[in-house]
UniProtKB/TrEMBL annotation:
Keyword presence, Metal-binding: no
Assigned keywords, A-Z: Membrane, Transmembrane, Transmembrane helix
Residue ranges crossing the lipid bilayer per the database entry: 120-141, 153-173, 185-205, 211-231, 243-269
Recorded topology in the membrane: Multi-pass membrane protein
Similarity comment text for this entry: Belongs to the YIP1 family.
InterPro entries reported for this sequence: Yip1_dom, Yip5/YIPF1/YIPF2
A GO biological-process term: vesicle-mediated transport
Entry GO MF terms: small GTPase binding
Protein name (record): Protein YIPF
Record flagged with keyword Membrane: yes
Amino acid sequence: MSNPFITTQDTNESGFVVSDNSFAQSGDIDFSARQNEQVNFATQTTNSQTNPSGAGDEEKPNTSNEEEEIKEYKWYHFYKSEFYARWFNVDTTDVLKRMLWGLIPFFGNFFKQTEENPDLYGPLWIPLTVVFLAFFSGSLSSIIENAYDYKKLSIITGTILLYIIFIPIILWGVCRFAFKIKNSLVSYICLFGYSYTIYLIVIPLCAIPFWYVQIPLIIIGFFVMSITILKNMFHLLHENTKIIALIITFVVLVIINLAVAAILIYSVWP
């Protein structure tokens, strides 16, 4: 009886039958190939679900970079440049918005609008620009004679820098330790610096050499600057202080602003 699965038979010299069971062999091969394909497909599917497109490998460096960016520096790191970088993390849009808030006193609470990211960029270049403009306006009549009053420049610079640096420090110390208000020192410097925005408009106009133009312009600048500071300080203090402390604070700030206005009048006076 012949084997139906054997299609060809060859007899070698020893008398053994050499069979070519092509059906059985091809079936075995096909089955093995299908098993391999299924195993490979399942493995690829599992890998793609576990790590789609290698996303896990790419996220690790980003996470570490984010941790480095949000790292906070303590006060004793003041000698590092990174300590100050966080206060210059603003763009042109942020600076223009804050200049508008400093120019128009009725745009809400400046402290709340800047509490997440107070900056030192605007409070540095705005007052320094005012110093330059005041010196230029006051010396305009002397440009032809090439005679500049550098004593006047020293007085203007010293007054404005004292106002920008020391007044916020004193005010921060009083609010922090007397009234238990925990706003940062930079937020006070930010307010006082941006309140100078009005003088970027007023001082160039004071180049007009007539006292009845210069003095009213400086007075307008004084009132706008004072209202900006006093309104925002009122929002900060009225819930935490007694009325007498609030009045004293306002009187002191008005006197200081008057002194600044007087210095600016002196600077533009020919």
